[in-house]
Amino acid sequence: MVVSQRKGAQPVSRLALAVHVAILAVLAVQAPVHAAEKANISHQQAFTAFHIPAQPLDKAVLVFAEQAGLQVLFDSQRLQGLRSIALNGDFSAQEGLARLLGGNPVEYRFTGERQVTLTRVSGEAQGALALGTTSVTASEGNGNSADWVYQTPDAVAVITREQINKRAPRHAADMLEETPGVYTAVDQRDPGLSVNIRGLQDYGRVNMNVDGMRQNFNVNGHQHRNGVMLIDPEMVSSIEIDKGSQSMMGGAGVMGGIATFKTLEASDFLKDGKEFGGRIRAGSGIGEMGNGTYFNGGGVFAFGNEVGDALFAVSERHFGNYKSGRQNAGNLGTQIRLKNTNREAWKSWLNDEVGDAGSVTRSQMAKFGLNLPNDQRVQLTYLNTDSDSNDSWTYGRDDLSGYDYVRHSKNNLSTANFAVDYSFNPDNELIDIEAKLYYVDTQLDRANARHNATANNAFDGYTDHFRTETWGAQVQNTSLFNFDAYGQLTLNYGLELYQDQFSPSSNKVPAVNEQTLPYVQGADPSGKRTMASLFSHLEYDYNGWLNLNGGLRYDRYRLEGKTGMTLYEKNVVRYENGVAVINTDPSNRVERTYDVDNESGQFSPTFGIAIKPGVDWLQLYSHVGKGWRPPAVTEVFMTGRPHGGNAPERVFPNPFLKPEESKDWEVGFNIFKESLFFDNDRLGMKVSYFDNRIKNFSFMRYGVYIPETTTSNFGDLAYVNNLNDTRFRGVEYQVNYDMGRAYANLSYTHMIGSNDFCSNDYFMGGAKKYGKNLKTSLERYTRPNGTQGLRVVSETEWLDDEKRNNDVGCDKVMGNAAYMPADRGSLTLGARFLDRRLDTGVRLRYSPGNDKDINTHNYANLDQALWPVYRVYDLYASYWATDDLNISVIMENATDEAYFVAMGDANNLSLARGRTLSGMLEYKF
After folding, report:
1. Can you give the pLDDT at residue 32?
2. Where is the Secretin/TonB short N-terminal domain (predicted)?
3. How far is C-alpha 710 from the geometric centre of its chain's CA atoms?
């Protein structure tokens, strides 16, 4: 059946937010005619997420073909002078094309299941003209599915499945390494992922989510990562990064941005009329150059029809100890692992295997979708990922012959995600409803090694259990108002709600010296935080050259929990023969507790503008906005001795911690130009400058003063608010050029400036001073030798000291924010051969490092930014032997560079892998 429709007729109604092709018939050549007709219609009604701004019609059609996965036949010359309508949202191919054409004198006809022909009409009386045609086919393997990024006037980035496959990532952080403005605090032994956007991470500053389900788990450690998520690259279809403050779904409590990990859908495998499909992938290291890379792969199976669909996926990942790189080791400086003083041990460390680096990760996913009457859809999702790994620190041997990796714990981290999605998208431009209910349960079981110390400080091995439960609900609607020649207005509004419940436990038997304190549960407290947010976002697009958008969000939070600290309060100070005597009488000991129930709210607006200054390929844009993040459970309630026994480190709570407030702005430009040097080549470029100022930035300070004391200890720590504005600014570059046979990708992030972190020494107040003498007398006492004597005894007032309460200390910061992330970039050059079935390339990953204190490292300060310079080259090749069978090979770190990418915790530093060769087989069916 051939479907022909002139724009203006009623479009075919669609299933709301359907994510797969509902096909009833088998291949047309094997089915009767009526089955082929049904297949054609089914494909036209399958839904695709389109991102196509208004632009010249011939170029818009090229983008449409790419995003819809169709072959479009048309004569580009006959479409000159016509402009498309902006197309943003989930539409069937038929309705999407009808909207894109708008009121232009163009007809379209679906002449095959995946083929559509455009013809321009010269008027109603004359009818349609037969035109010469140009074939435009979606280029799934050309890496251009992210072209919408270079046409979006906002700070966005996308990592496609093709990009992920080209590296076969071992750590989830590898997927993000080529994305400008995005960093990761990497622990080579821990598969957990912590996303940093433009210098911001931890405690929800970045919304890390899987299909919209927030991953808010955190276990407090040495401040390099306070918030990790567990995601298996085998389950990821793409990653979308939205940077800066947000006024749409997912922006509650966010200041750095949103990192959305989208998982596989049944529609990814049910194309071309298939009712079932899937893939099998299996990879491993190759020979001696495998370098600790064992099995890495999994399988996916999907089936469906017009009633519904289902997807099942499993994967496993096995990695072991590995050799680090050895070349250019001088870049590591002289102080890391004490090269200057322990040169032989340092050489041994460089040449030996990185120990206790083995990990096993297993994942299972199931999705069930049901297409309901009246354009509704319901989908159930279950995703579980479980990982076993170790935590080891590096210790020098007594004879200085080398370093050993000493295991501190064995860890099992698991995350279970459950979600119910509902959508309703009838043939009404005012209604496009999406709703989600979800539950995320993340648990860490940590088997800690015995702590050997003096008798009163030692404790046996024990197990910690950390659990974070997140409940969430989301609902939003998008309304479209089309004013034809006067532009298009899009209104998005909704509600999101989530609650985090932290529940730690431990079977640890405290050391003798540890039992004197009441708060010994460790650094990860229990508590509950609830966030609710109402949001609205309005976008106006006029003829493709002017775009205005603005949003308003209202966030409200509630924090509940109990915490405390042990103090020795003094009403007077006693002197004996002029020497002050500390009164340790238990009657002066106070267990100060805080039963916290805080609640507050904040409005946060955003505004953006974009224009095309006379040329269609250039777009200038700017964005300003505000963000707000209330304190998290750990920041407020954290208390106790993290190292146990009578260790000098003590963590104190801060129930008076203030919310963070951000003001960010950005200015940039997009370039998207096709047929620049050759026919059908394309250039995409995105360059932006960003500046984010944060008031009351929360950081962990060491050397705080606690109430009732006159001196501080280096190991006394607490979360405090920075009295200075904390500023993160820089420039991002992203360039993509593709001419079919060859392509290039460049990304670079340049961070600017530094921050000073200052806070009141007495972060909770309570400073005291000596007042007037109350009395002086003689007192008889017994000397150590048993003889009697007299001594002068006096008592002095112990008064509040407002001056010292206002004293400020600076740069006693512990954490990843102490220094800006170092600049980082990547350059990929690739070429395609054999009808583009063979894709080969080389990638350079580069960082100039920040070299901050690289040769003056010591432990006088805890804020080292140990990030040396590195240049790492990777080689890759991918060959599609058939349409269904792919063979890929990658050699990472081909020059065997000695390097690491670090954002904190000097004790856990482990060099990255040296030269590693691995392969992957993929079969699609």
Report:
1. 34
2. 70-121
3. 42
